[in-house]
Design a protein that fits this description.
Elements (H helix, E strand, L loop, with lengths): L7 E8 L8 H17 L4 E3 L3 E3 L5 E11 L2 E9 L30 H14 L5 H11 L6 E6 L2 E10 L5 E4 L5
Antiparallel strand pairs: 1-5, 2-3, 3-4, 4-5, 6-7, 7-8
Helix pairs in contact: 1-3
Length: 178
C-alpha cells in the first residue's frame, strides 16, 4: 500500500523487463521524464541509477524495480508534482527533502488518472534500441560529466560521471580510467 499526499504520485505496476534487464529502471526513468514533459510541459532529469530530479538538481522522485523473471518486473514510482505544505500530521513517516518543488507547481492532481495515463505511456513507448536508450539517458542525466563521490568498503574515490554502459552500469572516470 502507498501512503500518498495531494500533488504527489505514488504507484506500482508490473511490466516486462527491458531486453537488457538491468536497463529497466533507467528506461522507466526516461519514460517518466518524457511523460512529464509531454503531459505538463515540465522538465525533470535523471540521476543514475533511479532518482528523478528538478532542473536545479533537487530530488523530486524515484523509481524502484524488482526483477521477478523474464516476463515480470515489479516497479514503483514516487513523484512529487507540486508543493506539499504544510505536511499532514497523519503521516507515518516524515517527508524527505523532496517535499517542495516550486518549478512544477501542479495543483489538484488527479492521481488515479495520471497513474493510468503514465502506465499506458510506459507500455506504448518502450525502448527497443539500446543505443537510443543510452543516448537519451545522457541527454536527460543531471550529473553527466560532473564530479561524483564513490564510497566503497575500500574507501572513497572522486571521479567524473561519464554515462552508462551497455548494461546500465555507471561509467565513472577516476585517474583517467573508466
Amino acid at each position: 500500500a502507498w501512503e500518498t499526499l495531494p500533488n504527489a504520485l505514488a504507484m506500482s505496476f508490473t511490466l516486462k523487463p527491458n531486453c537488457v534487464p538491468t536497463m529497466t529502471p533507467i528506461e522507466i526513468g526516461l519514460l517518466v521524464t518524457r511523460f512529464i514533459k509531454d503531459r505538463f510541459q515540465k522538465k525533470i532529469q535523471l540521476k543514475w541509477p533511479n532518482d528523478l530530479l528538478t532542473r536545479e538538481g533537487k530530488k523530486c522522485g524515484g523509481i524502484l524495480s524488482q526483477y521477478i523473471d523474464a516476463q515480470n518486473v515489479i516497479a514503483g514510482i514516487g513523484l512529487n508534482l507540486g508543493k506539499i505544505l504544510p505536511p499532514p500530521q497523519s503521516l507515518a513517516y516524515p517527508l524527505g527533502v523532496a517535499a517542495i518543488l516550486p518549478e512544477l507547481q501542479l495543483l489538484d492532481i488527479d492521481q488515479e488518472n495520471i497513474s493510468k495515463d503514465l502506465y499506458s505511456y510506459l507500455l506504448k513507448n518502450r525502448y527497443i534500441n539500446q543505443d537510443e536508450l543510452r543516448r537519451d539517458f545522457n541527454q536527460s542525466c543531471f550529473h553527466l560529466n560532473m564530479k561524483v563521490l564513490i564510497q566503497e568498503d575500500q574507501g572513497e574515490f572522486i571521479g567524473f560521471f561519464r554515462g552508462i554502459g551497455s548494461n546500465g552500469e555507471a561509467l565513472v572516470e577516476i585517474n583517467a580510467t573508466i
